[in-house]
Write a structure and sequence with these properties.
Blueprint (H helix, E strand, L loop, with lengths): L4 H4 L6 E5 L8 H13 L5 E5 L15 H9 L8 E4 L4 H10 L2 E4 L8 H8 L4 E4 L2 H7 L4 E3 L4 H16 L14 H13 L3 H4 L4
Parallel strand pairs: 1-2, 1-4, 2-3, 4-5, 5-6
Helix pairs in contact: 2-7
């Protein structure tokens, strides 16, 4: 596929990628605080946010921090320089963004699973994730974990990860165990039907 112009615009320096709908629990405000601190310190790093604005059918008063997040993104002085917000991204463009990024950033404060971690592993992209039980379950020792809700804590985690990465000592996501949709469907069929799943869904 031809290079997407939205990917070509990413600046020099390692890009830290966030993927997912913009919602209050996803940690966007903490990420912005962290990267603003890093930029003030002179770090040449990019923050790339891929995701659409969430909860749009609701009134702004019911959307909690979403209007504040999107307003901050749209008015940010680093937008288009070291901060990038890509909405309406298709799978082909997302694959290019993964390829152009140095690390996946998951500061979400609550998740039911952790699909972006699996996607990152499938692209061989390292992961920095909040130390949540669900992320530990998904990624095990194959991610770099951080705690705290402030920008300073996340900025420190990014600095620590960059130091490990420079020495080739950062956790590699490639060891993460993950299943395809077909694997999960076969397992579910086995439980529901008590039959050999290959009879119901042949390989190929």
């Amino acid at each position: 596929a031809a290079p997407d112009p939205r990917v070509a615009q990413l600046g020099a320096g390692p890009s830290f990628l966030m993927v997912g709908t913009i919602e209050p629990r996803k940690g966007h405000l903490q990420a912005l605080d962290a990267f603003e601190q890093l930029w003030r310190e002179g770090a040449q790093v990019n923050l790339v946010i891929v995701g659409n604005e969430g909860w749009k059918p609701l009134a702004d008063a019911e959307r909690r921090t979403i209007p504040r997040i999107t307003a901050r993104l749209r008015k940010h002085p680093e937008l288009g320089r070291r901060l990038f917000w890509l909405a309406g991204v298709d799978d082909a463009c997302l694959a290019q963004v993964y390829a152009a990024s140095a690390c996946l950033l998951c500061p979400s404060e609550g998740e039911g699973f952790g699909l972006p971690l699996i996607e990152a592993a499938s692209h061989g992209l390292p992961v920095i994730a909040r130390d949540l039980p669900v992320f530990r379950e998904v990624a095990g020792e194959h991610a770099f974990y951080f705690g705290g809700l402030g920008g300073a804590e996340l900025a420190g985690a990014v600095r620590a990860w960059l130091d490990l990465h420079a020495r080739g000592a950062h956790p590699a996501s490639t060891g993460m165990q993950w299943c395809t949709w077909r694997d999960n469907a076969l397992e579910l069929l086995t439980v529901l039907d008590g039959q050999r799943p290959e009879r119901l869904w042949p390989a190929g």
